[in-house]
Amino acid sequence: MKSLPIENVQSYSRPPALESVEQEIIVRHDGELVTKSNRAYRVLETHHAASYYLPVEDILATLNPVSGNTFCEWKGVAQYCDLITQQGSAWTYKNQTETFKTIAGYIVFFASKVDEAWVGDVRVIPQPDDFYSGWVTPNLEGKIKGAPGTNNW
């Protein structure tokens, strides 16, 4: 398995960058395999841990769309989904902005709302604060947004 290189979240770009992921991504919840994918992308934005976008064809669990949405100035309108046993656990963009068309319909899971998320053989810890979905891995350096006092930078 390829190791994760050292990255500083403060050097990630704004607007965010989109890149393919070389490592296998695994998510488990309630003892079940939710996804196992070698076709993920990640979005890198200044002061954020990466968010991992997975093709819907690689999602093994049932996702139910829920009402409500949020707006990202870079990616567009996000629509949320529930895993059967976990509310608000994932979201997708179905009408991406042009820059992010590659990941239209891909699913993102909040690391804080699933039991396990993995990038290769590295177990993820959730980015602080449930507003952000970043997957924190030990190779990340710099100040990651989400901790108290960081929401407005």
Automatic annotation (TrEMBL):
<dbReference type="InterPro" id="IPR038694">
    <property type="entry name" value="DUF427_sf"/>
</dbReference>
<dbReference type="InterPro" id="IPR007361">
    <property type="entry name" value="DUF427"/>
</dbReference>
<dbReference type="Pfam" id="PF04248">
    <property type="entry name" value="NTP_transf_9"/>
</dbReference>
<feature type="domain" description="DUF427">
    <location>
        <begin position="27"/>
        <end position="111"/>
    </location>
</feature>
<protein>
    <submittedName>
        <fullName>Uncharacterized protein (DUF427 family)</fullName>
    </submittedName>
</protein>
